[in-house]
């Protein structure tokens, strides 16, 4: 079963302002889509609507052709979401953080896999260090290690490049392209150009004022 | 199922990704969350000790403020012990979901395919284990200080243990409702304190009953009934409150 996420005539209003209106979107296997727009244009809100976190919007979201409100748990079982917060517990080590993620996502917990994933994001030697002692970029890398650790069809990444150095950005762009090649799909908000990704699709949220 | 998941692991095979079905691994998720939260407590024991210190301090104030006379203190001891335990538990409720909310792990917990009402039980259980149970163990010691009559100490512990479980469950609803607010602590107290009244009445009632030779078991039974109802209904209310707080 390949992947299909579809939005039909989405409209979301916040404080008398339409963040987006009449928005249509289709995401299939192999797509990498970048959501663009100025600050406050509703990029994060759109991501949350598309993965079922925000439901009080007009329009419809379909996962594999079924309305999201009916198949929400199926979508969540195939989703990897990295939000604004890194989702890393400051007083736990990188390894302990990842093991928790493995457990709550229903995968078999394996320290070896966690260590391998941490190695891939350049955190060799920092596995047992409490996250609070790591830099912001390193904490972000713990979150990014989940991309290597838990295989999911749909990646929804909200500003994943924050605090990541140039080398890390290149590696992450490559990872996104690789994920798309393997039949996954990526929704990402970022101000980076993502030049290394072929066939990058873009969606621009302009933001418009609601008619009074 | 597990075999299929393993073969999809990108660390082992760079093959094509396939869709997964939901539903597996709820037990693992519950025990992992329970263990993680307990581990957090061992890393920051101060957070768990503060309510206990508060409980002890408040109890110490009463003999100083009223009178060190044993007869007078014994009269008001059941009520004082219970009110202080209740306030101590309330003090720790504000942090129940706040740290998880701030670092983004609460959002991740809500994005698992597992039912949220069950996952929050793990968090509430940890709150009770590190607040309610120690309060119940400490209460007899402080009861001694207030000249609580002999023979009522076991009932005191039992009533605080049962009652604090209700407080953890009911209080978690308020904690979930106020998690998105910058200064939710005061509002939390206003929301949940009225809901604690029945627990307080029957909790201190059990101790008074055992001192006066009444039917203390009936009071404990009612506390147990409260706990059963709270266990059935509170998880749904907590989950719904979290959804409201995070995605309004």
TrEMBL record, chain A:
- What biological process terms from GO does the record include? cytochrome complex assembly
Q: Which keywords appear in this protein's UniProt record, sorted alphabetically? A: ATP-binding, Cytochrome c-type biogenesis, Membrane, Nucleotide-binding, Translocase, Transport
What GO molecular-function term can you cite, just one? transmembrane transporter activity
**Please, which domain of life does this record's source organism belong to?**
Bacteria
In terms of InterPro entries, this protein maps to: AAA+_ATPase, ABC_transporter-like_ATP-bd, ABC_transptr_haem_export_CcmA, P-loop_NTPase
SMART domains found in the cross-reference section: AAA
What positions does the domain ABC transporter occupy? 5-209
Signal peptide (residue range)? none
Q: What Pfam families does the record tag this protein with?
A: ABC_tran (PF00005)
- Name listed for the protein in its UniProt record: Cytochrome c biogenesis ATP-binding export protein CcmA
Q: Which organism is it from?
A: Halomonas cupida
Gene that specifies this protein: ccmA
Automatic annotation (TrEMBL), chain B:
Topology with regard to the membrane? Answer: Multi-pass membrane protein
Superkingdom of this protein's organism:
Bacteria
| Cell wall biogenesis/degradation in keyword set | no
| Residue spans crossing the bilayer | 48-66, 72-97, 118-142, 154-179, 186-211, 217-242
Please name the GO terms of the biological process aspect recorded for this protein, alphabetically: cytochrome c biosynthetic process; cytochrome complex assembly
Give Gene Ontology CC terms: plasma membrane
Which molecular function term from Gene Ontology is one that the record holds?
Answer: heme transmembrane transporter activity
Q: What keywords are annotated for this sequence in UniProt?
A: Cell inner membrane, Cell membrane, Cytochrome c-type biogenesis, Membrane, Transmembrane, Transmembrane helix, Transport
InterPro entries linked to this entry: Cyt_c_biogenesis_CcmB (IPR003544), Cyt_c_CcmB_bac (IPR026031)
Where in or outside the cell it occurs: the entry states: Cell inner membrane
Indicate yes or no for the key word Transport: yes
**Annotated function:** Required for the export of heme to the periplasm for the biogenesis of c-type cytochromes.
Family the entry assigns: Belongs to the CcmB/CycW/HelB family.
From the Swiss-Prot or TrEMBL record, give the protein name.
Answer: Heme exporter protein B
Q: What is the lineage of its organism?
A: Bacteria, Pseudomonadati, Pseudomonadota, Gammaproteobacteria, Oceanospirillales
